[in-house]
Amino acid sequence: MWLLKTKKGPEYQTEDCPVIDKQVVASGYCRVALHAPVIARKVDPGQFVQIFMPPEHRDHMLPRPFSIFGANRKNGELVILLEIKGRGTDLLAGTGPGSSWKLLGPLGTGFPALSPASLLVAGGMGIAPLAFLAASAAVPCTLIYGARTAGQLICPQSDLNRPGLSLLETTEDGSRGEKGTAVDLLSRLIADAGTVFACGPRPMLAAVNNLCRRAGIEAWVSVEERMACGVGACLGCAVATGSGYKRACRDGPVFRAEEVILDG
Ligand SMILES: Cc1cc2nc3c(=O)[nH]c(=O)nc-3n(C[C@H](O)[C@H](O)[C@H](O)COP(=O)(O)OP(=O)(O)OC[C@H]3O[C@@H](n4cnc5c(N)ncnc54)[C@H](O)[C@@H]3O)c2cc1C
Ligand code: FES
């Protein structure tokens, strides 16, 4: 095991985590529950973990970054929502209970605490960190969850049934929830919003930022850059900001929306 120590104690470390449960939630998507007591106890919404490949592939493939979708400090369960995109995610999704994943975390900066009337805006897999943020909130909040079509709203409803959480779904083709994009719905609700928190594709984040800026509302975004080390050492995840390049893995992935150059 290796770890980085700060004055407050270890900031992040590796942990070998048995897979407790794996559910295929839609074709190409699964929800994986792990026993990760050390990371689950420390992680904040918006932080992420690097997941190493199965041992036989570790030497020639880098770990991959994943948001925390759920964490239970009491029983040590950590949940990841995983979309199969390429070789790494395919290898991970091919394992299940009986195997163990090696994680490095918790990494990056989390979201600030929600204030009353906070609006959360998730596009596609952007639901992962925002579902965890909503579940951890001490105040009621509204979550807008959008995708192109109903089949892409893959987050299990049971993970979104939380007291105080008002869920509004949108699909571009109208096959579930309101017809239109998450940003269309945000534009109708923004007048009554407190702070806005968003995660999803870049164009969506840029549109959220533009809307919030015009309305004079504070907004935070989580950006998903490609990563290598995940701990701030390689500069492989540089994000352009108003004050130069920053590292998504260490200075983010959560940034003030106005700080990041999102539509460049
Ligand atoms: C902070 C952070 C949090 C993330 N959270 C989640 C999550 O909760 N669930 C989840 O399923 N995925 C998440 N991702 C994306 C996930 O890391 C990538 O899908 C994964 O690394 C792809 O690995 P691969 O080997 O399967 O694909 P590769 O073979 O490496 O690439 C396959 C395809 O995926 C694209 N891709 C690779 N990495 C990214 C990325 N970071 N963002 C967008 N496209 C990418 C590539 O351009 C390529 O088209 C997150 C990424 C970051 C940076
Ligand atoms: S991935 Fe290496 S600095 Fe961010």
Overview of this structure, please?
This protein is α/β, with parallel strands linked by helices and 264 residues long. The chain folds into 2 domains: 3-107, Translation factors (Elongation Factor Tu (Ef-tu), domain 3, Beta Barrel); 119-223, Nucleotide-binding domain of ferredoxin-NADP reductase (FNR) module (Rossmann fold), CATH 3.40.50. The chain has helices at residues 37-42, 87-93, 127-136, 182-189, 202-215; strands spanning 3-6, 9-26, 29-35, 48-51, 64-67, 70-72, 77-83, 100-107, 119-123, 141-147, 165-171, 178-179, 196-199, 219-222, 238-241, 244-247, 254-256. The strands form 3 sheets. Strands 1, 2, 3, 4, 5, 6, 7 and 8 form an 8-stranded antiparallel beta sheet that branches. It has a 7-stranded mixed beta sheet with strand order 12-11-10-9-13-14-17, with helices on both faces. Strands 15-16 form a two-stranded antiparallel sheet. The longest helix has 14 residues, at 202-215. It starts with a strand and ends in an 8-residue tail after the last strand. The mean pLDDT is 93. Bound molecules: flavin-adenine dinucleotide and FE2/S2 (inorganic) cluster. FE2/S2 (inorganic) cluster (FES) binds next to loops.
